[in-house]
Amino acid sequence: MTRGGGKRRTRSPARCRVCGKTLTDAGEMKLMRCDDCPCELDEALYGRLRDWRAERARQLGQPAYCVFTDKTLMAIAEAVPGTEGELAGIPGVGGRKLGRFGADVLALCAGEELVPAADGPSPDDLPEGGARTSGKSSEK
Ligand SMILES: [Zn+2]
């Protein structure tokens, strides 16, 4: 009934990696899956990428999406590229961004802890907890 079933063509359109449906929406093509298909992204990695992006954006004084968009980060967290070539193959990762952020992203994907270079001591370091109550009477 259906034509061409089972035959693989090199000129294949973007397909959902989850269900195999042909993708027509630009956003879905970026994700390489349907918007509503369950995603297989590495949530831990995605979270770290987002943290890293926020830090980067802050350093650059630019909005987060100027570093990478959410969809690009998701695609990275799904693909988990191991090389620059793989990273470059992810939609949204242009040559310029690859040069600027490629090493960081690959390090994150490799599971490395990326400690953003601190330009001097920060006055408001993250409270480790417990420090808040000091200095004030804890009596009720
Ligand atoms: Zn799908």
TrEMBL record:
Keywords, sorted A to Z: ATP-binding, Helicase, Hydrolase, Nucleotide-binding
Disordered, as annotated region: 115-140
Record PROSITE patterns: HRDC (PS50967)
Top-level taxonomic group: Bacteria
Organism the protein comes from: Streptomyces paromomycinus
SUPFAM superfamilies xref list: HRDC-like (SSF47819)
Residue ranges annotated for the HRDC domain, each copy included: 39-119
GO molecular function: helicase activity; nucleic acid binding; nucleotide binding
Name of this chain's protein: DNA helicase
Keyword ATP-binding: yes
